[in-house]
Write a structure and sequence with these properties.
about 220 residues; mainly alpha; 11 helices; about 0% strand; rod-shaped
């Protein structure tokens, strides 16, 4: 029971501190307007030294963001108190007593004022190398697409698989053997001129020769 009573009393006191701060907001805003040129350089220096997490909280201060990193936020409020930022001292005392999570109202107010004074967030600078990469990327992508299309056109899909290399060699050897072998029709034509013409009637020719001999014998006697 005592623990719950202490928590309840702490929350009540934190609420009163937030209400007291709200009453002083108008005066804080006026004082900040008068000193903003003087404080701008100091605020910028503090902001530059902050972690990326705290920078994000300063740019977009919300109760949820403050509750995620209350210790870092308390440290930032202390640094604002040191440069005499309007309202930082009152907010810092409340944060020291109750914690940043219970007095988010005053903290959000301060961070919003800081964010308004800081220059707008700039996009990361683009270097010459980044520009070259951006310019080269579309070109390389187009070249790859063109190469792929050309390959597809040059190599149309074949409906039949190509024969193995061994079968091609066998077909070539068979063709060469067929060309070298003499044809059956050509062989007799080459042998015909070598045949001797045989006499059709041997007996008749012998009689004619005998007659020639008789005539040759009778011729001298005449």
């Amino acid at each position: 029971m005592k623990l719950f009573e202490k928590d309840g009393a702490k929350k009540t006191a934190a609420g009163e501190a937030c209400k007291s701060f709200d009453d002083a907001k108008e005066e804080i805003s006026k004082s900040l307007e008068e000193k903003k040129e003087e404080l701008l350089a100091k605020i910028t220096l503090i902001f530059d030294q902050c972690s990326p997490e705290i920078k994000a909280v300063v740019r977009q201060p919300t109760e949820a963001a403050i509750k995620k990193c209350p210790a870092a936020v308390a440290k930032l409020v202390d640094e604002l108190t040191e440069i005499e930022f309007p309202g930082a001292k009152v907010a810092g005392e409340a944060v020291g007593k109750f914690g940043a999570a219970l007095v988010t109202g005053p903290v959000v107010f301060l961070l919003e004022k800081i964010s308004a004074l800081l220059p707008p967030e700039q996009a990361p600078a683009v270097t010459e190398e980044d520009k070259k990469e951006e310019e080269a990327s579309p070109v390389s992508e187009k070249q790859e697409e063109t190469t792929e299309i050309t390959k597809e056109e040059e190599a149309p899909p074949s409906s039949e698989p190509a024969p193995p290399a061994d079968e091609e060699k066998k077909e070539d050897e068979a063709a060469e053997t067929t060309e070298d072998a003499p044809s059956a029709d050509a062989a007799p034509a080459e042998e015909e001129p070598t045949k001797e013409k045989l006499p059709e009637n041997p007996e008749k020719e012998e009689e004619e020769e005998d007659k020639k001999k008789v005539k040759e014998e009778e011729a001298p006697s005449a």
